[in-house]
Structures are given as C-alpha cells and as structure tokens.
Specification:
Strand content: 15-25%
Shape: globular
Oligomer: single chain
Number of helices: 26
Helix content: 55-70%
Distance between the termini: 58 Å
Structural class: alpha/beta
Number of strands: 14
Length: about 625
C-alpha cells in the first residue's frame, strides 16, 4: 500500500439536480464544453491529475498546494467570465475545497482522510468559491499573494475533529502569481545561477552572486522582483521557464551560470520573456575574478535597460554602492554566510573564521562584522562558549555605525541584545530590520526566538509563519512552531506543522546526513503525529551523528518528556544547563514539549539549580 502527501482538490456543481431537471441535454452539453475548454486545460497547465469524475463532481490531485489553489482560482475566474452572458437559471457554478493531506494510493485512485476533508470542504464553500484548510493557507503564504478569510474552526460531516477553514477571496487575490495583478511594474524572477565550476564546494559563490543580483534589482522601485528565498526553492530542480513564471506570476525570468577557476570567472546570463519564451537579453562575461562586482552591476543595468525601467538618482547611488571593493574579502564573506546558515557549533566556528578573514582584508566590511556578531551571539547563548558579551555588543554596534540602513545590521544587533537579555531594545532593532527588508528570512526567524523567550508566543508564531512563507524548504520554522501551536491550542496547525517538519527534515537529512538537528526535530514531529517507533529511530540516528550538541540534547529531553521517561529527560537537561546561561531557562519554562515532566519533583529542583548557576 502506497501513501503520499498531496494537494487534493474536490469540486462540485451547485444545484446540479435542479439544472438537470430543467434541461438535462443542455446541462450535459455545457459540462462537456466546460471540461474540454476549461477544467481539463487548467488542471493540466498546473501539473494536476484528474483522479475521477463523479457526475456533478471532480476529484484532482496536484504536486503542490500553490498549483492547486492557482488552478482553482483560474477555473473560478473562467467560470465567472463564462457565466456573465448567461441567464441566471442556466449558469453552472462550482464549489471547490482544497486540502493538503496524506492519501492512500490504489492504482489511479486515492483514498483516506485527506480526500474526505477536501470533499467535505467543498460542501461548505460558497457558490463560485474556494474553501481551504489551515495547512493550505499556510503553505500558500504569500506565494500567490492571496487574500484569505478566516472562517474559524468548522465541524465537517463525518470528520472527527474541527477543521480550521479559510475562504479564498477571489476579488482581492492575485490568482496567477505572487504579486498583485494591479501592479503595473515589469516582474522578474532570478533563478539560482548554476555552479559550473565542477566543484560542489564552489556552490556558495554562485549562490552569492545570484543573491547579490536579486538584492540590486530589488532596489529598483520600477521592478517587481521575487524574493531570494522564494526563487531559491527552484535550486537544483529541472524546471521550465513558463512553469516558473506561471507559479510565481512573473513576466520575465533571469537564469545563468557561474564558473570560477583560480583568479578567473565566467558568468553567463539570459533574460527570457515568459510569454513567448523569447530571449530579451543574453551575455557572457569572461573576466578576472576582481571584476565580479562590475559583472553584477552590468547585469543589473542590462536588465533595467531592456525592461525600459527608469532608475531614480538614489537607486543609481544605492546600486553603485558596493558592500566591499575587495573581492577576496567578498569571497570569504560568501563562504562564511554559507556556513552560518547551517546553525550548528562547528559551522558557527567555521563561519566566524571566514568573517574574521573578510574584515582583516576590509576593515569597513559591515556585513562581515554582522556575521561575526551573529556567530558570537549563538556561541554564547546556545553553546555556552567562552565569548565576551561586551564584545558581542561592541561588534554589533560597529555594524550599525558602518551601515545603519542594512537589514542584517539591525538583525545582528537584535540577536546581540537578546543575548544580553535587553529584549525591549532587541525588539526595536528586529522591527527596524523587518521594515528595511520585509522578505528577510533571518530577521523573521531570529526574531521568533526572543519573542518566545519573552512569552509572546502569538508573535513568535506569526514570525515563524512568515519565515516559512519566505523559505518554504527550511524545516526549522515549522519544527519550532509545533510546540508553540500546541501552547495556543491550535491543534490543526500543530499537526500540519508536524507533518511539514517530517517532510522537510527527511529532505534535509538526504542533503546533509552529517547534521543531527533535522533528525531530532523530525523525531519530535513524529511523536506529535503518533508515530512513536519512527520517532525513537530518528532519535537514535541523531545521537549516532552527534551526542554533545546542546540543541540536540535539549530536544532529545523533549522526546523523553513525551515518552514519559522523566529520569532520562532530566539527565539530558542537566547537561544542557551546565553553564547556567538564562537562554535555556526561558525555553525550559515555556516549551510545551516539556509538559510531561513539569509535575515531577525534579522539575522545580532543575529550575532552582539553573537559577543558582545563572546568578553565580
């Protein structure tokens, strides 16, 4: 028996019996026409599959939630246009329900609760409307820029637990892309440039160039540019330009490649019009490595020129302003940033060495100083390393002095102030970072932790949800959100986050089998889904990889808390708090994963020891 996670669309005709009773032949003829001209076409365009036709209804599945919602919206728009010239009593209207769920596959058919929920959803959808579950709403996020109406928890027929339901507001949504259809600006998606160096270790360099081109294009007010993390969901995938353009709602796609060899670099790029697959612009740059900044600048200006966009004076100045003019420092910074994003002690230490080397080469390199401050903050808070808190604050202040308009600078300062437990000041810095860069994954994700430490769980969840929208391939935001949803009593969201965590953690383990964190995060998610044996296997795997990492030890204690093994949980927590950093006290007190041991006598003793160590 095969099982899989899929997006399920169920549609039904409103008043089918009435229509058939009034004009059976005419209704059937209409349906045949609608299928051939609209339904079949749209489902195929969005890579969907019709599972079965059931008289007045249709069941289809899609490889992604985004595709399912975009398809449903286009079908409903098409039906509205079709019905505009018809008499009211002859109009055919669909109700649509969409769910993301686990299904059982038998031949070409699918069964299970995932299908049942979708089928029940369509019965409560408005005529010509679309009803979706919380998990669908969360996964779509801002990728379609859809407007959603929260209908609260609904008790669906023959479904045990209430389901959180949202209506898609068709008149307010941009249903074919991630931006508003009223936005007149040329729209561009920059796909991750392909690393052609023949060395996977050079991946950070091609990714860095892509990110910097996205950053520069985003400074142009006359362009709409897809955010970095959204564009990078296509990294390593064989996709067609028209597919990317349709899913992201853009008119143009920039793709390219980078080959770095010694002190030479070759960068190729081409801008493609998604409407006709025609090449608007293409060029190849074969230069010294020291020319990499000039290459990026030329690509940016070429795109602006080809799309006939006028640069404002401040935009010209902003694009021309280089973060550094030292290409060697830039290379070290890119390498450090690649390590930093992996979030473990070993990689924080590696990243810090790269950032230190970058500032040695360029003492005014603000982003590199921000990287140093970030590494030190996490090494101090989580890994309880012998790092000076005063030094962290000084470094983060220097970043702001060098560039006060840099989102990374304010994010870094926010993390440093959180390490110093100056939460009110930290919140101001994080909010400033979000204002400067609303699409910053780091600002949202890193802000969520101190929000949780302050007991502001609702705000932490909002930040994690937005982080997951910005980067839907990262397992960490949904993994962190599981216990927070549980604390808020949002059971449906808890399950959805757990399911998403398992899916993404499995992918991460394939890509980075040496990293224990996705395994232990997946173990907690599996416990939430009732899969205890698999959770134990994943816990064993995590400890086989690394048995001293404080984050892994803490999360393993949470696993034992769920399993009712208080002795094992307290033993691990004792190791975590050995240096008494207050960071862990906040989590131990607020984390619902530890609810299973709170009534144990050892819990208060643990908090007392932590308090004593914090004060000593």
């Amino acid at each position: 028996m095969e099982r899989r996670l899929t997006a399920i669309l169920a549609a039904d005709i409103v008043g089918y019996s009435r229509l058939m009773g009034a004009d059976e032949a005419g209704t059937l003829a209409q349906l045949k026409e609608i299928r051939s001209e609209l339904l079949d076409k749209k489902i195929a365009e969005h890579q969907g599959r019709i599972v079965k036709i059931m008289g007045d209804g249709i069941l289809a599945e899609f490889p992604s939630v985004v595709s399912a919602v975009a398809c449903a919206a286009e079908i409903q728009q098409g039906m509205q246009a079709r019905n505009a010239s018809m008499l009211a009593d002859r109009r055919i209207e669909f109700r649509v329900g969409i769910n993301l769920g686990d299904v059982i596959v038998e031949g070409d058919d699918i069964y299970g609760d995932g299908v049942n929920v979708a089928a029940r959803l369509q019965t409560i959808a408005a005529p010509a409307g679309i009803a979706v579950t919380q998990s669908v709403r969360d996964q779509v996020g801002n990728r379609l820029n859809c407007a959603f109406e929260d209908c609260g928890d609904q008790q669906l027929k023959n479904i045990d637990k209430p389901v959180r339901v949202y209506n898609v507001l068709l008149e307010e949504a941009a249903l074919t892309g991630i931006r508003s259809t009223n936005d007149p600006r040329p729209s561009v998606a920059v796909l991750p440039f392909t690393n052609m160096s023949g060395d996977p270790e050079q991946e950070y360099f091609s990714d860095g160039i892509t990110e910097d081109i996205i950053t520069d294009l985003s400074k142009v007010s006359g362009l709409f540019v897809i955010a970095r993390n959204t564009a990078f969901t296509y990294k390593g995938k064989a996709v067609k330009v028209d597919q990317v353009a349709r899913e992201l709602g853009v008119a143009y796609v920039l793709e390219g490649s980078v080959r770095k060899a010694g002190q030479r670099v070759r960068v190729s790029g081409e801008l493609i019009n998604a409407n006709n697959s025609g090449h608007v612009w293409a060029d190849r740059y074969d230069r010294d490595l020291t020319d990499i900044f000039a290459i990026q600048d030329e690509i940016t200006h070429a795109i602006v020129q080809q799309l006939r966009v006028k640069l404002l004076p401040q935009e010209k100045k902003s694009i021309a302003q280089l973060p550094t003019d030292n290409v060697e420092a830039y290379t070290y910074y890119l390498r450090g940033r690649d390590f930093l994003y992996r979030f473990s002690k070993r990689y924080f230490e590696l990243a810090r060495r790269m950032f230190v080397k970058a500032v040695e080469l360029d003492p005014d390199y603000a982003r590199a100083y921000a990287g140093i401050a970030d590494c030190d903050s996490w090494l101090y808070m989580v890994y309880q390393a012998d790092v000076s808190l005063e030094g962290i604050l000084e470094t983060s202040a220097k970043v702001l002095a060098l560039d006060n308009n840099l989102a990374e600078a304010h994010t870094s300062r926010g993390v440093a102030l959180s390490a110093a437990r100056k939460f009110d000041e930290a919140n101001v810095e994080f909010e400033r970072a979000l204002k400067l860069d609303p699409n910053s994954f780091a600002a949202h994700f890193l802000y969520a932790r101190p929000a949780f430490q302050q007991g502001n769980i609702s705000r932490a969840v909002e930040l994690l949800e937005r982080a997951a929208q910005i980067n839907p391939t990262d397992y960490k935001p949904p993994a962190l959100a599981i216990h927070m949803y549980r604390s808020l009593g949002r059971d449906q969201d808890t399950k959805a986050a757990a399911q998403k965590t398992v899916e993404l953690a499995e992918r991460e383990l394939i890509s980075n089998p040496e990293d224990p964190r996705p395994a232990i995060a997946g173990a907690l998610a599996l416990l939430e889904l009732g899969e205890e044996d698999r959770a134990k296997d994943w816990t064993t795997r995590a400890h086989a990889i690394e048995d001293q990492d404080p984050i892994c030890l803490y999360n393993t204690a949470c696993v034992y808390s769920h399993l009712g093994d208080a002795k094992a949980a307290f033993s691990l927590l004792e190791q975590v708090i050995r240096n008494g950093r207050p960071f862990w006290k906040d989590w131990i007190q607020n984390d619902s994963d530890l609810d299973g041991i709170r009534d144990h006598p050892g819990y208060q003793k643990l908090l007392q020891r932590l308090e004593e160590r914090t004060q000593s």
